[in-house]
Amino acid sequence: MSHSGRMRPRKILVETNGIKRDSASPTTSTLVYLSLGSNVGERDAQLRDAQSRLGAAGRVVAASSFYETEPVEFTQQPWFLNCAVALETSQTAAQLMTSILRIEQEMGRRRVQKKGPRTIDIDILLFGNVIVESKELTIPHPAMHLRRFVLEPLAEIAPDVQHPVFKKTIRELLDALPAGQAVRRIPGSERAND
After folding, report:
1. Is 147 a catalytic residue?
2. pLDDT for 31
3. Which of 26, 40, 119, 146 has the fewest CB atoms within 10 Å, counting from its CB?
4. C-alpha distance from residue 17 to each of 21, 30, 161 (Å)
């Protein structure tokens, strides 16, 4: 225990590409997978802008094609463009969430209606093999295994990555989904990775 009476945070070993790394080390980077979506304005331009802005939080090492997807839950809104991004970051999960919320705000995201239209939406899907359950943040994303609009793009860039809770690959989770939500890949939308 520290002098303030609170317990010190314990170090979490994060496995990235088979290499165990100490997440408490400031030089450690973690491979993180994100889901990006937009259904207001120039959707493709906003996804590209968000990918570029994520460079302030780490290095984008892969990005999927764009997928046009029908809205779920609140369906009376325009269709989305979605993609998945792999980001190497030295930030903690909480720091990355703060960076993401800042990007969303700078890009005009206003949270006026739950699941409603948005200029940009960025969700942390996986943060290495770390499992986070707090009031502010849950990783892996608690609904990712139910969402075709998340799994289709993610399977494009990370089909063999394993969900740390379900112990199934992204491809296996995608294959287990029932038919339903329309998800269409946009040909020629692949990003040349820097």
Report:
1. no
2. 97
3. 26
4. 10, 10, 9
Question: At 50, which CATH number?
Answer: 3.30.70.560
Residue 118 falls in the annotated catalytic set: yes
Q: Which of 123, 148, 171, 191 is catalytic?
A: 123
Q: Which whole number is the average pLDDT over 76-103?
A: 93
Among residues 46, 38, 76, 70, the alpha carbon closest in space to that of 183 is found at 70
Cα separation, 191 vs 7, whole angstroms = 44
* 123 annotated active-site: yes
When the pLDDT of each residue in the chain is averaged and rounded to a whole number, the result is: 82
As to burial, measured by CB atoms within 10 angstroms (0-12 exposed, 13-18 middle, 19+ buried), residue 70 is middle
Catalytic residue among 53, 118, 147, 148: 118
* Residue 107 phi, psi (nearest 5): -90, 10
| Residue among 48, 53, 109, 147 flagged as catalytic | 109
**Residue 66 resides in a domain:** yes
For 143-193, the pLDDT digits (tens) are: 999 999 999 999 999 999 999 999 999 999 999 999 878 889 998 777 544
pTM more than 0.85: no
The reply to whether 121 belongs to the active site is yes
Residue-range definition of the domain harbouring residue 180: 29-185
